[in-house]
């Protein structure tokens, strides 16, 4: 299986060859900081291979001291990018960076005890196909 991916500005492109063993929505405080959101959506593989198609020299990686946590990103647009963690034995790929269709769905939420205080029952909120027009009053 091959997956193509890129950053938002398209200056960095990559390809992943192989299978993802896991797909989790991580609510740990570090992943929330990484994404600025309720959780990170990460794919994990111990066997897939990462190939940079363009922009490899631009990729920046931040590693949290005294931990296994790291984040790779595009310095131009800030998009999260794949990173090797656990001394290179684990490929972690932000699911939103993949441009091709995925054949795997999230297996669950992890580190939920660390979730944001406002992250409760978010699935019950209204769904909009685009930004709602809040200027109209009923």
User: Beta fraction of the residues?
Assistant: 25-35%
Q: Radius of gyration in whole Å, from Cα? A: 16 Å
Structural class assignment = mainly beta
Residue ranges: pLDDT <50 for 5 or more in a row?
A: none
The dominant shape is globular
Order of helices and strands: EEEHEEEEEEEE
Count of beta strands:
11
Q: Helical element count?
A: 1
CATH architecture, by name, is Beta Complex
Mean pLDDT: 92
Please render the helix and strand layout as text.
Layout: E1 2-6, E2 13-17, E3 22-26, H1 29-35, E4 40-45, E5 49-54, E6 60-63, E7 70-73, E8 80-81, E9 83-85, E10 90-94, E11 108-110
Comma- or semicolon-separated keywords:
138 residues; mainly beta; Metal Binding Protein, Guanine Nucleotide Exchange Factor, Chain A; five-stranded mixed sheet; three-stranded antiparallel sheet; 1 helix; 11 strands; 35% strand
């Amino acid at each position: 299986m091959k997956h193509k991916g890129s950053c938002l500005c398209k200056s960095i492109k990559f390809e992943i060859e192989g299978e993802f063993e896991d797909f989790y929505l991580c609510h740990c405080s570090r992943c929330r900081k990484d994404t600025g959101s309720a959780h990170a959506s990460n794919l994990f593989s111990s066997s897939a291979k990462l190939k940079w198609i363009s922009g490899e020299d631009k990729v920046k990686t931040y590693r949290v001291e005294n931990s296994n946590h790291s984040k790779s990103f595009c310095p131009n647009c800030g998009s999260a990018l794949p990173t090797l963690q656990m001394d290179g034995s684990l490929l972690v790929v932000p699911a939103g960076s993949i441009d091709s269709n995925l054949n795997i769905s999230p297996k669950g939420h992890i580190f939920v005890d660390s979730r944001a205080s406002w992250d409760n029952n978010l699935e019950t909120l209204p769904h909009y196909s685009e930004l709602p027009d809040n200027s109209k009053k009923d």
